[in-house]
């Protein structure tokens, strides 16, 4: 739930899960225990400024975060976070696809230029690999979409 939250730490945005242990103390409460207690204020500020609408309470060593009842506005905010996470995953899939296709093209170019060292591919191998990459890309894009839709439905149902 908090994984997407970035904390400003010494001028660098750092994922919250790298700065603190996050645990569930009961179904309505999260505990955030920083690895370095001096970062408690930065963690609190990042959680408050997140789109989740959470209001952490600090004690000496940790943050206690009561999870509010799911109002329509809060549900919409969570759905937006889920949609953004889904889009980030799809961008990562597209980047991986492009990187794989670039590597295939480089290997195919080596086949044409016999002076270059390294693995080389025939045209048939290139076509087969491109199709395989496209099929995998479609499969995982659909999986990301399906997971996003399922999670949105769960959130809206409460």
From TrEMBL:
<dbReference type="GO" id="GO:0006412">
    <property type="term" value="P:translation"/>
</dbReference>
<feature type="compositionally biased region" description="Basic and acidic residues">
    <location>
        <begin position="99"/>
        <end position="117"/>
    </location>
</feature>
<feature type="region of interest" description="Disordered">
    <location>
        <begin position="89"/>
        <end position="126"/>
    </location>
</feature>
<feature type="domain" description="Ribosome recycling factor">
    <location>
        <begin position="1"/>
        <end position="155"/>
    </location>
</feature>
<dbReference type="Pfam" id="PF01765">
    <property type="entry name" value="RRF"/>
</dbReference>
<dbReference type="GO" id="GO:0005739">
    <property type="term" value="C:mitochondrion"/>
</dbReference>
<comment type="similarity">
    <text>Belongs to the RRF family.</text>
</comment>
<comment type="function">
    <text>Responsible for the release of ribosomes from messenger RNA at the termination of chloroplastic protein biosynthesis.</text>
</comment>
<dbReference type="InterPro" id="IPR002661">
    <property type="entry name" value="Ribosome_recyc_fac"/>
</dbReference>
<protein>
    <recommendedName>
        <fullName>Ribosome-recycling factor, chloroplastic</fullName>
    </recommendedName>
</protein>
<dbReference type="GO" id="GO:0043023">
    <property type="term" value="F:ribosomal large subunit binding"/>
</dbReference>
<keyword id="KW-0648">Protein biosynthesis</keyword>
<dbReference type="InterPro" id="IPR023584">
    <property type="entry name" value="Ribosome_recyc_fac_dom"/>
</dbReference>
<dbReference type="InterPro" id="IPR036191">
    <property type="entry name" value="RRF_sf"/>
</dbReference>
């Amino acid at each position: 739930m908090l994984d997407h939250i970035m904390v400003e730490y010494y001028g660098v945005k750092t994922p919250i899960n790298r700065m603190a242990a996050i645990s569930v103390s009961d179904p309505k409460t999260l505990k955030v225990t920083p690895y370095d207690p001096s970062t408690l204020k930065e963690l609190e500020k990042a959680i408050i400024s997140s789109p989740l609408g959470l209001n952490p309470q600090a004690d000496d060593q940790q943050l206690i975060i009561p999870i509010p009842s799911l109002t329509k506005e809060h549900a919409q905010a969570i759905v937006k976070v889920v949609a953004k996470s889904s889009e980030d995953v799809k961008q990562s899939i597209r980047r991986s696809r492009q990187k794989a296709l670039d590597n295939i093209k480089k290997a195919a170019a080596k086949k044409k230029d016999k002076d270059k060292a390294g693995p080389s591919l025939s045209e048939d191998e290139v076509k087969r690999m491109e199709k395989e990459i496209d099929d995998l890309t479609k499969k995982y894009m659909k999986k990301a979409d399906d997971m996003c839709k399922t999670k949105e439905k769960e959130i809206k149902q409460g």
